[in-house]
Design brief:
single chain; 147 residues; four-stranded antiparallel β-sheet; three-stranded antiparallel β-sheet; globular
């Protein structure tokens, strides 16, 4: 198959930047998302105290989880909350969320890390689950990022 083919088994998805492995989204057990599926915005609010969108990504992760929803909220404090709710995961499944950035991280392995880039700072905090920590994976050499 050719890299421009968008079928599930296409070589296209072996290219890091084309698959979910190279984007700021979930990867469940190092699997690809469903190529033909789409996420739907199922709720939206633009209130001054909290603007948010809620996406149902269940079809995108069909066969990996029963339900996958992502809520992205923006607050006046300039904080952003990215909340992923997954149900129906089989025991032992590994879920990873990645962020592609050129920022330089501070201490790793803890639920809080600060990224610095050209004088700007961004603090990332894992709220749940407990016992999770940040780590760096070099995307320059990764064709796929393993958990």
């Amino acid at each position: 198959m050719h890299p421009w083919d968008r079928g599930q088994d296409s070589d296209r998805w072996t290219i890091f930047r084309q698959s979910n492995h190279g984007h700021n989204t979930l990867v469940i057990d190092d699997q690809l998302q469903r190529a033909s599926a789409h996420a739907e915005i199922i709720e939206f609010a633009d209130r001054p105290a909290e603007a948010y969108s809620l996406l149902d990504m269940s079809k995108v992760y069909e066969g990996q989880a029963t339900s996958v929803q992502r809520r992205v909220a923006l607050f006046p404090s300039r904080e952003v909350l990215i909340e992923d709710r997954l149900t129906g995961l089989k025991p032992g499944r590994r879920v990873r969320w990645g962020m592609i950035t050129e920022g330089t991280p501070g201490s790793l392995g803890t639920p809080i890390v600060e990224l610095c880039q050209r004088g700007a700072r961004l603090t990332l905090r894992i709220v749940s689950p407990d016992l999770c920590g940040w780590k760096v994976i070099d995307t320059a050499t990764a064709s796929r990022m393993s958990p």
